[in-house]
Amino acid sequence: MAGHLARAGHDVTVYNRTASRALTWVGEHGHQASPTPAEAVEGAEFVMMCVGNDDDVRDVALGQHGAVAAMDTGAVLIDHTTASADVARELAAACADRGLGFVDAPISGGQAGAENGQLTVMCGADEPGVFESAREVVMAYAKECRRLGDAGAGQTTKMVNQICIAGLVQGLAEGVAFAQKAGLDIDEVVATIGKGAAASWQMDNRASTMAAGEFEHGFAVE
Fold it and tell me: Is 143 in the active site?
């Protein structure tokens, strides 16, 4: 995602809690890295964050050397983390107190979507104008970016997304297990039924890994 921003002509500074990853990115794309969130956001008009969970969001945004306290008035924080609607509203309030814009903007599309600039971005923002300004930048790595309501609406929409995916994954897993027990070739089965009504992104991308017993892909159930 940061690479797409750089290729779109933006001046990009990256921060990662694993410093070596940030330095590797700089080696591939140029631009610069900073050792703390606070230093990374200096002078930035838009700050994109994508971490693990609510606690990580609070740490990077509001903790010691956090981003929010160091952002310039009028800047916009865009949180791409899949987190809770509660923490989104908490960040929105913290940003408003400092004269900052905020968009909760969880994403869908996986690693491939990020690499190909084809992510779906579900957004919540109290100020429609803030969202519109953020959208112009986010579209560097998205195929869809839409405001669904006030702060927290993006995270709530992502919950809908995960519920729908979980149901598909469960059904696909049952189908793969049944095909294996019946002695069918999974790749041949998927190549056939994937052209019909059973087709899905999950089938295209997860049936073969399920059949191989590889389960690293996916999202946390918590």
Answer: no
Measured between alpha carbons, how far is 24 from 61 in angstroms, rounded to an integer? 23
Distance CA 70, CA 52 (A): 21
- Using one digit for the tens of pLDDT, what is the confidence trace for 201-210? 999 989 999 9
Assigned domain for 219 exists: no
Which residues constitute the domain of residue 191?
158-211
Query: 81 with 170, same domain?
Result: no
Q: Tell me the pLDDT tens digit for each residue of 168-202.
A: 999 999 999 999 999 999 999 999 999 999 999 99
Per-chain mean pLDDT for the chain: 96
pLDDT, tens only, 20-39: 999 999 999 999 999 999 99
Candidates 155, 92, 81; CA nearest to 126 is 92
Could you tell me if 132 and 188 lie in one domain?
Answer: no
Statement to judge: residues 122 and 56 lie in one domain: yes
Nearest to 113 by CA among 4, 222, 25, 211: 4
Q: How many CA atoms lie within 13 A of 26 on its CB side?
A: 16
| Catalytic, out of 143, 158, 181, 195 | 158
Whole-model pTM: value is: 0.91
